[in-house]
TrEMBL record, chain B:
<dbReference type="Pfam" id="PF13459">
    <property type="entry name" value="Fer4_15"/>
</dbReference>
<protein>
    <submittedName>
        <fullName>Ferredoxin</fullName>
    </submittedName>
</protein>
Length: 414, 75
């Protein structure tokens, strides 16, 4: 993936927290946030009260992960094993997301603070920031400016593809392994690579934890909705071209349509939007009629969607949704790590059938193929493809019907 | 774990669809169109629930898998 410098824009409905510092250096960071206060295991309860959930896609509560690691770390030490390891996930394999790159470039010290907070909370003596080769120097530069109570290092990932950021793949890469998804019967938090209890957490999630450690849960909940307290980073783009992306920091639970307007992207104008792919390429299509929905779990539940990695990829009214879905499915098939049979066989099959449908040619039952990949892999990559394709077949059912009879409802761009 | 609830865990990174498991544990497993084991109940096949009376067949499937892609896990 090419590295871009997406513009960031102050959102009228938003709040500057993660991106508040004037520059990426330590001086600007401490001028804005002050030094990191002393932190111990009690911060886990504060993070729980603040409601910090994972920003990498799965939305798992950070406090529960931290508590599990802290518990397992104690067990590991009494058995003479190595203590826990914290991995800050800055791989950003999601093709439509640019938020982690913006965060690492703009506020690397907040991410590093977050990694330190996670380490001190769990009794870990080491933290690793894993990111693309392009962003690693940014983090190294920030590290050179500071002294931390735990060892913090940077790991440049040789290829930050789609599955590189999957937790077991990332943990494997950090431990010097192949960096592909691993089969797991034991949780990483219990026993990761090198038998160490391992926390893998998205860089934005950790940066949010750094804010909670400084300002507390009540302050965190001062903005955002009850279901999505605080702020979150959102990437708005034209679904056909992720490089058009704009990254916003917004209050949690913002209205989808407002976020599209706030992006000031011509291609994201709600009046010309047909649908939005929410969460990521392995996310869920939401029709433009639902742009009054909020970007939080209750707001998106009627569509079976979730905020995921904060991606809003907009499909313009002049673009065929069947062609677009086929293109994304093809890209996702190509992004498979190639480890698991159903993914290796099923994803290209789905992509082929959708491509045939896009061209108005007869196809096999796509839904059947989708059912053969869902939940049948070591990682959740095929599950995401299943989710995206199922939502497309539902939201764009009129278009799908038209294509089955060799027509296309969109006269414009194919 | 003789009396507790168990599941048959498929390590998809090892499975190559040889299909022995679908023969010895046919009560639960069918083959998909590529030969990979597919839970007959239509559920996801990372972990297939195993009833106590199916335990012996599931253990055979684990033992016979040439790729060592199966194991029984506590549910």
């Amino acid at each position: 993936m090419t590295l871009t410098h997406p513009p960031t824009i102050p959102v009228p409905t938003g709040t500057r927290r993660l991106l508040a510092a004037a520059g990426p250096g330590l001086v600007d960071h401490e001028r804005t946030h002050g030094p990191l206060p002393a932190v111990g295991p009690a911060v886990i309860d504060e993070i729980a009260r603040a409601g910090v959930e994972g920003r990498g896609g799965a939305g798992f509560p950070l406090a529960r992960k931290l508590a599990a690691i802290a518990r397992q770390g104690g067990t590991a030490r009494t058995r003479g094993r190595s203590g826990p390891l914290v991995v800050a996930n800055g791989a950003e394999g999601e093709p439509a997301s640019r938020k982690d790159a913006v965060l690492l470039r703009r506020s690397p010290h907040l991410v590093l603070d977050g990694a330190v907070v996670a380490a001190l909370a769990t009794g870990a003596t080491e933290a690793v920031v894993a990111t693309s080769a392009g962003l690693a120097p940014v983090v190294r530069q920030a590290l050179a400016e500071r002294r931390d109570p735990v060892r913090v290092t940077v790991r440049a990932l040789p290829h930050a593809g789609f599955t590189a950021g999957e937790a077991s793949a990332l943990a494997s890469a950090v431990a010097g392994g192949p960096g592909v998804p691993q089969d797991r019967v034991v949780r990483l938090s219990e026993r990761g690579p090198g038998r160490r209890p391992t926390l893998v957490s998205n860089v934005e999630t950790l940066a949010q934890a750094a804010l909670v450690a400084r300002y507390g849960a009540e302050w965190t909940r001062g903005v955002g909705s009850a279901a999505a307290p605080g702020t979150r980073l959102v990437t708005v783009s034209d679904v056909r071209d992720p490089d058009t992306a704009v990254v916003l920091e917004t209050a949690g639970g913002a209205v989808l349509g407002d976020l599209l307007v706030a992006s000031r992207l011509d291609r994201a104008d709600p009046r010309r939007a047909q649908a939005v792919l929410v969460g990521g390429w392995g996310g869920t299509w939401v029709p433009a009629t639902a742009l009054d929905a909020t970007l939080d779990a209750p707001g998106l539940a009627p569509w079976g969607a979730s905020p995921g990695a904060g991606v809003l990829a907009v499909l313009g009214a002049d673009t065929c949704p069947v062609v677009t879905t086929a293109r994304i499915a093809t890209a996702l098939a190509g992004a498979s790590a190639g480890r698991c049979g159903p993914c290796v066989n099923g994803l290209p099959g789905i992509a082929e059938q959708l491509t045939a449908l896009a061209g108005g040619r007869p196809t096999r039952d796509v839904e059947h193929l989708v059912s053969l990949v869902d939940g049948r892999g070591a990682c959740h990559h095929p599950d995401g493809v299943a989710r995206m394709v199922r939502s497309a077949m539902h939201v764009f059912r009129e278009d799908v019907l038209a294509h089955r009879s060799g027509r296309c409802l969109v006269g414009g761009v194919r | 774990m003789s009396r507790e609830e168990v599941a048959l865990h498929v390590d998809w990174t090892r499975c190559r669809g040889r299909g022995l498991c679908t023969e010895v544990f046919a009560a639960r497993l069918a083959r998909d169109e590529w030969g990979f084991p597919l839970a007959r109940d239509g559920g996801a096949t990372r972990d297939v629930p195993v009833l106590p009376e199916e335990r012996a067949a599931a253990e055979d499937a684990v033992a016979l898998c040439p790729l060592q892609a199966l194991r029984l896990t506590a549910r």
